[in-house]
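Sample A.
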Amino acid sequence: MLDPHANMPIDHVGHDLKGASCAVILLHGRGSSAEDILGLAGAFYDERISFLAPQAANNSWYPNSFLAPIEQNEPWLSSAIAKVANLIQSCATAGIQRSSIVICGFSQGACLATESVARHPAHYGALIAFTGGLVGPSDLELHHHGSLAGTVVLLSSGDPDPHVPWSRVQASARELERMRAQVELMCHAGRPHAILDKEVAAARSLIRSLF
């Protein structure tokens, strides 16, 4: 139970990891699955990309809100962040530079993607967070160390959203900009808790710009 996600499977479509020009790590939301989030691979598809989607234990990366005190989401949160970090390392070991690795998630997966990048800063290909932000109970506690060295970040969310306050998305943008990321915010008034076609199109354009 100390590392609940460690031995969970990783789904894969697209190019083999070795020899791929780019890797896109897709992180599913609470109650969803790796298979579901891999549906984005069709929209983002390029024959040079390897798409990887880890599966969370019990279909959830952590049990409580991403705004809860950090300790209330342990050890699941640390296990999830380690899972993402290990997957990034696997991509690097296969010869894919971090500047060609995209971390993308929806909802709880978007929060995990954002927090993982902030805790392990580097020049990534991109961070794409559909309805998510940095993890923690207060905007005042958002403080991470290191540089994202110009990593392009897309934070896209609805306002209002039943799970992710727009104020937290904005606070996350400020924190990532402080870490030297290039952040684009997209706000969709009255949008349901889902990914819109125009969000997918913006993400696809960002990924294709890596080539």
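Sample B.
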Amino acid sequence: MCGRFALSMSPGDLVEEFKITMGFDGPALPANWNVTPTSPIYAIRSNNDNHRRELFTPSWGLIAPWSKDQASALKSQSNAINARIESVHEKPTFRSAFRSRRCIIPVSGYYEWATENGAFPPKQPFYIHPGIQNGTKPLALAGIFDRWVDSNGEIHESCSIITRPAIGQLAAIHHRMPTFITEERWSEWISPEPRESEELHHLLRFDVTQADEDWVAALAVDPVSTRVNYTRNNGPDLIVPETAPEQPTLFQ
């Protein structure tokens, strides 16, 4: 986790939902129900100068700061779409961004594939989202971002999603999940001030609380078509629930 997600909200929707106070003048991204690594996505950060929230469009997968050219940047990015909460403060690719460049990555929902450790047949895709009771509200995922300057002086912004051990109903599908950021923690998480890892782990609730478990229990988890496995497929039909195959027993 997490290797694909969906985002069908417009910049205007995100500006309203996340109370973004700086104007957005970047390119509007099309609705995408099969976002893949290295694609441009939306993220929210706090501006260094005035601490106002701003929407920006980094590409998904953190480019290693030491990348020498476009080819090495793309390769490093493909391997860094996720950062593990257990080691994000130690890994050379992530540690500086974790300390000082944190963001929120909004998604309408994300996909996860059942593993042999879960309660479902391996490789069955599921779409995990806020559910009907929350309407079109997005999930807010903890992220980090960085900037890389290529040989032509062009600035490339990129980001990673922070993942953690799965809990509750999500653990029945896969052993990892994204780190969710609830609204009361948004401002503190994206604050640009450098923070120590212990403080940030506490903010991310490294020690899971009952409130976290209740929040995860309220998520909708729908089995969906294996069409999402193929990056060429896109459209709202990818998130239409299907009936998951029954898990075979020892007596079948």
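B remarks: The helical segments are 11-17, 70-78, 95-100, 186-190, 197-203, 210-217. Residues 70-78 form the longest helix (9 residues).
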